[in-house]
Design goal:
By secondary structure, the protein is α+β, with helices and mostly antiparallel strands. It folds into four domains: about 1-30; about 35-130, Beta Complex (RNA Polymerase Alpha Subunit, Chain A, domain 2), CATH 2.170.120.30; about 135-225, Beta Complex (RNA Polymerase Alpha Subunit, Chain A, domain 2), CATH 2.170.120; about 225-315, RNA Polymerase Alpha Subunit, Chain A, domain 2. It is built from six helices and 27 strands. Strands 2, 8, 11, 12, 13, 15, 16 and 17 form an eight-stranded mixed sheet that branches. The chain has a four-stranded mixed sheet with strand order 4-1-3-6. The chain has a three-stranded antiparallel sheet with strand order 19-22-26. It is elongated and about 140 Å long.
């Protein structure tokens, strides 16, 4: 059994140091695994430099490029923690119509973390297309949506913009086709009074055009227009009934159509006056007769009784018997 004792002694001799060495080896292996090579995609804004003065780039290039990067995990994590990643592309050596191929090594040199490798980029190439830069002063065209409140109307002709004109810059082929710059639509939302709002301007090709200022103050003035409303169940007031008679009208309640300026109509509908429609019995001699229902005058408002003709009935009261 002497050999077992020898083995046991060999294992237990300096056991603490051996365990420490084992632990360090495990930690080292974990660190190596954690910081191993990895590939990951990143998005970077493309910034075009070197465009000749008086020209503007109009090529089909996205605002952002997709970078496929390769490197250690810690380096990729470091890059991921940074914001506003941007890649510059110099166009000064290229002419209109040239094909520009993205150089991966040049892109690597722009990365804030230099230990990373650019494995691929999209777009990998693009055509260089430029046009002359055109600047024009154009009027603001006010856009409206929705409807004004009952009795009101709003049209772009009744709206004003401050400022009334703006400066538009962009490719000559686009700018020269423009006659005006529209605002974002202003929702009337059943308004019953003038509206004022600060709104953005809408560009037909936002990526290629710029406008100064990019927002304006718009005032929309409402125009009062005629409106029509119908009242139902309006009682017919009896007038001129003889003192010795009982008078009635059939129907006793009718509908009334009210037409006129919005303000006057709304006021009348909100609180109809007593006697808006009435039956005049002063000239009725027969017991029953079909007569026209009269309407009370209201300034600026047309009132129509519906129906216009009703049956007027007059019943004479019985005379008192003479006293003996």
């Amino acid at each position: 059994m002497g050999w077992l004792n020898s083995v046991r002694n060999a294992i237990t001799r300096n056991l603490g140091l051996k365990l420490l060495a084992l632990l360090l080896a495990v930690v080292a292996q974990v660190m190596v695994h954690r910081d191993g090579t990895k590939e990951e995609d990143f998005t970077a804004r493309l910034r075009l430099l070197g465009v000749p003065r008086g020209d503007i780039f109009v090529g089909n290039v996205p605002e952002f490029a997709r970078l496929h990067l390769r490197g250690r995990r810690v380096a990729l994590a470091d890059l991921k923690s940074q914001t506003n990643l941007e890649i510059s592309v110099d166009l000064s050596a290229y002419r209109n119509g040239d094909r520009l191929v993205m150089e991966l090594r040049q892109i690597e040199q722009q990365l804030p973390v230099r230990t990373l490798e650019v494995a691929a980029i999209e777009p990998s190439a693009f055509d260089v297309r430029m046009e002359k830069l055109q600047v024009r002063t154009l009027p603001v065209e006010i856009a409206l949506s929705g409807e004004a409140g009952p009795g009101f109307r709003a049209t772009p002709k009744l709206a004003t913009s401050d400022p009334p004109v703006v400066q538009v810059a962009g490719p000559a082929s686009l700018v020269n086709r423009l006659a005006s710059i529209k605002t974002t639509p202003i929702d009337l939302a059943w308004a019953e009074k003038d509206l004022t709002a600060v709104v953005k301007l809408v560009l037909p090709a936002e990526r290629l055009l710029s406008v100064k200022p990019d927002e304006v103050k718009v005032t929309v003035r409402l125009e009062e227009i005629d409106m029509t409303r119908t009242l139902v169940g309006v009682p017919v007031l009896i007038k001129g009934c003889p003192v010795d008679a009982h008078c009635s009208v059939d129907p006793p309640e009718i509908a009334v159509r009210v037409e006129g300026p919005g303000t006057a109509v709304r006021k009348l509908v909100a609180k109809p006056p007593e006697g808006l429609v009435f039956a005049e019995f002063a000239s009725v001699s027969a017991a029953e007769k079909h007569e026209r229902i009269q309407t009370a005058p209201v300034r600026g408002v047309a009132i129509t009784a519906m129906p216009a003709i009703a049956k007027f009935t007059v019943v004479r009261k019985a005379a008192d018997a003479p006293k003996p």
